[in-house]
Amino acid sequence: MPRLLEAVTATPDAIAYRIEFARDASGRPRMIGCVEGMLPLICQRCLEKLDWYFDTRFEFLVIGNEQEETNGRDAVVCSGGRIELGPIIEDELLLALPNAPVHAHGACEVPAIPTAGGQPPPRRSNPFSALRALRSYHGRERSS
Ligand SMILES: [Zn+2]
Asked: Is residue 114 a part of any domain in this protein?
């Protein structure tokens, strides 16, 4: 699943899937599946690793060729008795991927971005305290 591997930080340990086939009310074949597992993603808040657990379900009408009527339903082509499962499962996972994965609220924080000087600018001393010191100095001089 090359497209999925581009979206994750490491090769997933395992992805489990189950596929069942049945016929719908009108007798047409359909494929029902579920995929579950964990994908290692990057939290978009703290930029650390995030284990994203998923359990996604899908259902497709099974058609013999691209021209077959699907009535707007999602469909997979069964060609020569075979269905390419890999790309289908990969598509489902890519669709289920969160746009901006983040850890649970409160579980992490935005990392502090160091400022150019390394530290925030020092608080400027109160200009009036310098004036007050000056005035007391003059006062002392005047009194002497
Ligand atoms: Zn996080």
From this structure: no
Q: CA 113 → CA 107, 118, 120, distances in Å? A: 19, 10, 11
**Residue pair 44/102 in contact by the 8 Å Cβ criterion:** yes
The tally of domains found in the chain comes to 1
Name the strands in the sheet holding 15-23, side by side, starting at the edge strand that comes first in the sequence.
Answer: 15-23, 29-42, 49-63, 75-77
- Condensed to tens digits (0 to 9), the pLDDT of residues 52-99 reads 999 999 999 999 988 999 989 999 999 888 998 989 999 999 999 998
Q: How close is the Cα of 120 to the center of ligand 1, in Å?
A: 25
The DSSP bridge partners found for residue 82 are: 79
**How many angstroms separate the alpha carbon of residue 90 from the centre of ligand 1?**
25
